[in-house]
Design brief:
This is Class II fructose-bisphosphate aldolase. The protein is built from eleven helices and eleven strands. By secondary structure, it is of the alpha/beta class. It has a single domain, classed as TIM Barrel (Alpha-Beta Barrel). The chain has an eight-stranded parallel beta barrel, surrounded by eight helices. A three-stranded mixed sheet has the order 7-6-9, with no helix packed on it. The longest helix has 23 residues. It is globular, with a radius of gyration of 18 Å.
């Protein structure tokens, strides 16, 4: 199936499910995510992050996904996550990404608007949808760190202005989630999410999906969340599988890797269940 992102999120938004967006760091992670998503008949976004860019792996990963995609029947998108440099817009377009996240949330509102709007103008010229972020989501992802005390919940008024002034296609909101694993059970601000949903008309995005209880995600799906990002639990599941595989298959790299991929697929399967309505 041809690669895409925009219509995938719109369908999820209208039908109150979420497209799972999985961070992938290696070819084997790509294989495992796509195989499980295909088995479960779930549209999926594969996210390439800033670490891949720093390690000069972005184009390699994108090319691998592009080569693999025609073998699957599910809708697949390739998403550049947490870009904080407008120069990466052109990189993402040339690489073959299907969507782009501009993260200028650490800057004052007006700067965030200006940087995000510039990304939107460039990406819309080639029909690439753009995700913006408003508020500060705590935790660490892709070596980008926000202290808990600096986390900031997205205000309704700012969300309305941001969407109007930037033209973003989707909006990542800060409503109590965090990147990484939680020290205690998170509590999403569903009332705030409901207010943002009632006053905007675009798909909303939940970052820091690892560790959020299913009942909270189920409620969020009814309030505009159409994309949920998962990273930490995937990495931990994959690495746990690798460690276990090293003991079970010390002299058999093929079966060791298949064992690790099976462990990752189990995490992916669980998150796909969470994303269903």
């Amino acid at each position: 199936m041809p690669l895409a992102t925009g219509y995938i999120l719109q369908d999820a938004y209208k039908r109150h499910y979420a497209v799972p967006a999985f961070s992938v760091h290696t070819f084997d992670m790509v294989d495992a995510v796509l195989a499980q998503a295909e088995q479960d008949a779930m549209p999926v976004l594969l996210m390439v992050g800033q670490r891949a860019i720093r390690n000069r792996q972005m184009q390699t990963l994108v090319d691998y996904i592009c080569d693999a995609a025609p073998s699957f029947t599910i809708p697949i998108g390739i998403h550049l996550d947490h870009c904080r440099d407008n120069n990466q817009v052109i990189q993402a377009i040339r690489a073959g990404m299907t969507s782009f996240m501009m993260d200028a949330s650490a800057h004052p509102f007006d700067v965030n608007v200006a940087r995000t709007r510039a990304a939107v103008e460039a990406c819309h010229a080639v029909d690439m949808p753009v995700e913006g972020e408003l508020g500060a989501i705590g935790g660490v992802e892709d070596d980008i760190s926000v202290r808990d005390e600096d986390a900031e919940v997205t205000s309704v008024e700012a969300a309305v202005r941001f969407v109007e002034e930037t033209g973003v296609d989707s909006l990542a909101v800060a409503i109590g989630s965090a990147h990484g694993m939680y020290r205690r059970e998170p509590k999403l601000d569903l009332q705030r999410l409901a207010e943002i949903y009632a006053n905007t008309e675009i798909p909303l995005v939940l970052h820091g999906g690892s560790g959020i209880p299913r009942h909270q995600i189920a409620a969020a799906l009814q309030l505009g969340i159409a994309k949920i990002n998962f990273d930490t639990e995937l990495r931990l599941g994959f690495m746990s599988g690798l460690k276990d595989a090293a003991e079970k298959f010390p002299d058999d790299p093929f079966h060791a890797m298949e064992h690790a991929k099976a462990a990752l697929r189990e995490v992916v399967r669980e998150k796909i269940v969470f994303c269903r309505p």
